[in-house]
Amino acid sequence: MSVQDQLHRYLFENAAVRGELVNVSNTWHETVKNHDYPAPVQTLLGEMLVATSLLTATLKFDGEITVQLQGDGPLSLAVINGNNNQELRGVARFKGEIPDDSTLKSMVGNGYLVITISPEKGERYQGVVGLEGETLAECLEDYFMRSEQLPTRLFIRTNEKGAAGILLQVMPAQETNKDDFDHLAALTETIKTEELIDLPANDVLWRLYHQEEATVYEPQPVVYKCTCSRERCGDVLKTLPQEEVDEIIEEDGKIDMHCDYCGSHYIFDAVDIAAIRTNTVENSDRLH
Ligand SMILES: [Zn+2]
Hints:
The protein is 36% helix and 30% strand. By secondary structure, it is α+β, with helices and mostly antiparallel strands. It has two domains: 6-224, Hsp33 domain (3-Layer(bab) Sandwich), CATH 3.55.30.10; 230-277, CBS domain Like (Alpha-Beta Complex), CATH 3.90.1280.10.
């Protein structure tokens, strides 16, 4: 796992089809390592990291994407955040037993896939699709057809070592021959899980497409990064009723804010709380 996670973009100019290939193995490891997730939840988070990376790479602007699964099953929530810098993080909440042979449906139950796109400038967009497909990839293909009318194929693979995936998509506003797209999808389908996860990206691309004319662009690093901070926790504390905060401080001497995503703790004592209330939280930052 020493190789840096990367995203490669490529283009079949003659067919007006674009592709993305990503490996998120290290990011996946970082996302699940401080949590006690059952195996199928770990796998699903790996798939969601792949999907979120591929989706963020389709954005033409700076911003964030959140891919979220929610339902009435034992896995009540699974969420991945990603942005245009390919910084990803994620978390899942579950209760009860999740057996090893669980499927997407048996984990999520009656549920939805919610995709929220938040550009840095401009309006937030939210798309919701029911879990009609058997797999996350099928649900996302469905999402692209409904939200953007763009034929899209996702190939998401995980094993005990890592997680990787490929997206193929018809170029918006261009004439794409359906046979060309199906041909490229059929080629892509032939990749074996261990090849996709273990081989360098250029080897995978050569194996799949050496008879096609593809332009491959400079890769972009993919990293695990949690966006939590002491300052953000302070902002949350400010929104809580003062009496409630004071009560905890009186009883425990401190407030321990815990990040669900990365497991970081942010401790606030009476002095910190007073500072937050007078908006001097930045100065107290260095003391911890
Ligand atoms: Zn965090």
